[in-house]
Amino acid sequence: MAPIPLIPLTIAVLLSVHGLRSRSLSFSGAVTAFVVGFSILAVPVRTIGITLIVFYLIGSRATKYGKKRKAQLEDDYQDAGYRSGAQVLCNSFTALLASGIWCLAFSPDMLPWSLVNYYIRSGSALLESVPYVDGQWCPLDATVSSGWSRALIFVVLGHFACCLGDTLASELGILSSRPPILITTLKTVPPGTNGGVSVGGTLASLFGGLSMGVTMFISIIVENAHCRSSWITIFPSLVFWGSAAGVGGSLLDSFLGATLQRTRYSVDKKIILTDHKVEPERGRKDTVKVISGLNLLTNNQVNLLSSIVTALVVARFASTSET
């Protein structure tokens, strides 16, 4: 049995405890973050784990930035920033799945994924993969295993770029001095409206995606000598697709939020009513109106769907192009 990767285990524990103590995570959120974090950090391509850490640190900082102003704009703001296990999983599912498939295919003996590999058919047999030992090849090499390694890495990039782009657009865009416009009608809506977009929020999403691309580029060329020798083609690829996923994923999330997620607004309190704590309309003393969207998806489901679509689109096009 493979030894327990102590460094990934320690980092996962520290991040989970930090999130719990800083009230960024609930107890269920901290437990889920530990499981997800350890599983991703244990993947031999350390770039994936480093990208996760940077994603968590930037996202957590953005969530707490301007919290007094946000509390004036969104009902139940404190609970909204107190991420549950479901929220953590929805914001990490695609990257977790891609990391697991990569590990099962190219390094099936690595814990904790070796426990999964014990019960299923070997992923390496399914993908006709080349074992990844001591960085003998670049994970972004399109010639390895018919490009599956490259595609899975870009799934991870697309996911984190989309999620961070959307997080920054939401958490920083709501603080913009100008009210946002609804992406479907282009009409002005209150800050915090699902589907509302602004120049500041869009630029924030671009920064989020760009930061994920740059993080992955720096970490992978430091980690892998073969990737380092091909940096001139890797850099524009990661930066372009990271930026595209940040902006595109955020806009997709806004579109889904504007159409499939209901936004309620208290006319008297002049505040957005979040779906973290749904209250019956009857019995309310204030006047509530629906600004946009059908009551079909929750915020978590919108985030999950947009991240899956963005990650798959990025992987599809990035794995077959040099840019």
Summarize the entry for a quick read.
This protein has helices at residues 6-21, 27-41, 46-64, 67-73, 77-81, 85-90, 93-106, 113-117, 123-127, 148-173, 199-223, 225-228, 231-260, 299-318, and strands at 74-75, 181-182, 196-197, 263-266, 271-273, 288-292.
Task: Walk me through what this model shows.
The chain has 323 residues and is mainly alpha-helical. 61% of the residues lie in helices and 6% in strands. The protein contains 14 helices and six strands. The strands form two sheets. Strands 1-5-4-6 form a four-stranded mixed sheet. A two-stranded antiparallel ribbon has the order 2-3. Helix 10 packs antiparallel against helix 11, helix 10 packs across helix 13 and helix 11 packs antiparallel against helix 13. It is globular, with a radius of gyration of 20 Å. The protein starts with 5 loop residues before the first helix and ends in a 5-residue tail after the last helix.
Furnish the topology, listing elements before pairings.
Elements: H1 6-21, H2 27-41, H3 46-64, H4 67-73, E1 74-75, H5 77-81, H6 85-90, H7 93-106, H8 113-117, H9 123-127, H10 148-173, E2 181-182, E3 196-197, H11 199-223, H12 225-228, H13 231-260, E4 263-266, E5 271-273, E6 288-292, H14 299-318
The overall pLDDT, averaged over residues, is 87
Spatially, the strands of the biggest sheet line up as 1-5-4-6
Portion in helices: 55-70%
What is the string of SSEs from the N terminus onward? HHHHEHHHHHHEEHHHEEEH
How far apart, in Å, are the first and last alpha carbons?
40 Å
Largest sheet: 4 strands, mixed
Separate helix tally: 14
How much is the radius of gyration in Å? 20 Å
The number of E-state strands comes to 6
Stretches with pLDDT under 50, minimum 5 residues: none
Overall geometry comes to globular
- Structural category is mainly alpha
Strand content: 5-15%
